[in-house]
Structures are given as structure tokens and as C-alpha cells.
Amino acid sequence: MDNQNQVDYPSSNKEWKLIEKVVTGLQDEQRKSRRWGIFFKLATLVYVVVIALMLKSPIEGSTQGGAEPYAAIIEVNGVIAAAQDASADNIITALRDAFEDEQVLGVVLRINSPGGSPVQSGYVYDEIKRLKATRELPVYAVISDLGASGAYYIAAAADEIYADKASLVGSIGVVGSGFGFTEAMEKFGIERRLYTSGEHKGFLDPFSPENPDEKKFWKGVLKVTHNQFIEQVRMGRGDRLKETPEMFSGLVWSGEQALDMGLIDGLSSTSQLVRTKFNSEEMVNFTRQPDPWESIVQKLGASMGAGLATVLTAPNLQLH
């Protein structure tokens, strides 16, 4: 037989056993990998189902009460802005749901917010006034830690405002902030190239020098917005306000101070207010909740992404 076609076989039974052991070990590892893969898939499915059931219950219960009438609680938490939980869309949707529910005794806005967009706050203010014209339903605002700026703007639409003695209330003002980097750019020899089709199109550009006329114009815009804010507060609070030169300066006060100034009507918590005003302890949260499946997908996506990143970036070391 030609030497080129000759196949070398293991020379001893010992070598065959070694090869068999290696192959068997590889097969065992593959079977273990498949088992763990099935396990993790089932565990993920169970996790998703359990979380969905947990989320589904409070969301449905938040707008469905029992036989007894109840107070509708609507949370205004965090920054008031279009893409946040405390957006006008979310708050207004909750308000409309509460006003359409015949079992609702009244609405309590539970506020803990530093404020935010005057536009979003104005939408909510106007909607509260509109809804109150459609149904005689009392609306109260309760400020917990903070009810400032746009949050107080919303509260001013309520029939009465309450807070804790240590709550921070007020900040009736408007701010437009930014930065200026022109001197730093000169120091480092950086040239700014800005092209516009309008004379003042780039007047808020932080990399360009301030123009005195544009600065005056921007302050005028803020002043107009501030006056609108003040007017709405005066309309909402009426003769309960004890106006001082500092009231609309943007300062904040404690709940005790705000009570003396007429910015709030009393000191109370949400549960205490419900017992006092409605002679009841029944409360149902009408705050709009995120879609449970969307929330789950986002959380799972974040978890899987973090896990994948760990796998891809970890050193490729294995111990058997």
C-alpha cells in the first residue's frame, strides 16, 4: 500500500480511551448548555408573567373603586415637562377620568415638584378651570416637600391649597438660564463660526458675545411670562393673597410662612384632608401609569443589554 494513503491509528488502547473521554466530556458540556438555556428562558417567561400580573392589579384598581364613594388622588411628581411623568397630557388625562367618575367625591392633587414648563403648567391650570365648569367637584392641592414655580401655578387653580409646615412653597417667577464661553474660547484660540438666516436667530448661542439689545429683548419675554404667571395666581387665590413686594420675586417660603401670606389655606396631609373634607378615608389613585408591557420590555431590554455588555467585555477566562 502507498505510504501517502496510509492512515495512522492510535498505537494503543490507552489513546483511544483518552479520545473517547474528551468527546464524551464535550457532549456533556453541550447537554448542560442546552439545559441551562432552557432554564433561563423559562425563568425569564415566569418573571415577565409575574411582573405583568403585579403591575396589572394596581393599574386597574387605580381607577375602579368599591361600593363607597372616594377621593381621587392625582400625583404631580418631579419636573413638569412634556416628556416627563408630570406632563400636561398625563395630568389632564387623570383629571378627566376623575371628573367622569360618578363615585368621585373630589380631586386631590398631591404635589411634590420644583416646577417646570410654564406652557405645560398653564395647560393643566386651564383644564382644571374648564372641568370645574362642567361639574361641581371640589379640587384641592396638597404640597408635600416642594410645590414651587410651575407646580404652584397648577396648585393655584385648586379651590384650596394645603401643605406641611416645613414644605417649600412659592417661587413665583420665571428663569431663562445659559452659559457664556466667549472668554474661554479667546484664551484657547477657538473661533466660533455661526451662520444664520435671521439677524437675531442665534441670540441665545452660548459661544457668541451677548448683544445688549438682544439681552433686553429676552428679559422682556421673561417679564411677560412672569406677569402671566402672577395674573393666574391672583385669579386663583383672589383676596386670600396678602401681597408683598417679595411675593412674586421668585423666593420660596415654608408652609407656615406661606399660610401667613395667603399662598396656602391650611396645614394638612393628604389623608387628613380627605377625612376632613369628605368625611371618608376612601382614596383611589387616578395618576396615569405607564403601559405595563412597555415598562417590562424597557426593563428587560436594559437588563439584557447590561448582561450582554458584561459578557462581551469580560475577559475570556473559564474554569472547569
Question: Can you characterise this structure?
Answer:
The protein has two domains: 14-61; 70-290, 2-enoyl-CoA Hydratase, Chain A, domain 1 (Alpha-Beta Complex). It contains nine helices and eight strands. Helix content is 48%, strand content 13%. The chain is α/β, with parallel strands linked by helices. 24% of the residues are buried. Residues 56-65 and 306-320 have low confidence and may be disordered. α2 packs parallel to α3 (118-134).
Distance between the first and last residues' Cα: 44 Å
Instruction: Compute the number of structural domains.
Output: 2
Helical content class: 40-55%
CATH superfamily of the largest domain: 2-enoyl-CoA Hydratase, Chain A, domain 1
Number of strands: 8
| Level-1 CATH class name of the largest domain | Alpha Beta
CATH topology-level name of the largest domain: 2-enoyl-CoA Hydratase, Chain A, domain 1
Q: Specify the overall morphology.
A: flat
What is the typical, i.e. mean, pLDDT?
82
Biggest sheet details: 8 strands, mixed
Which structural class best describes the helix and strand composition? alpha/beta
The helix-strand sequence is: HEHEHEHEEHHEHEHEH
Unreliable residue runs? 56-65, 306-320
Number of helices, counting only DSSP H or I runs of 4 residues or more: 9
Tell me which CATH architecture of the largest domain applies here: Alpha-Beta Complex
User: Which percent band covers the strand fraction?
Assistant: 5-15%
| Gyration radius from CA atoms, angstroms | 32 Å
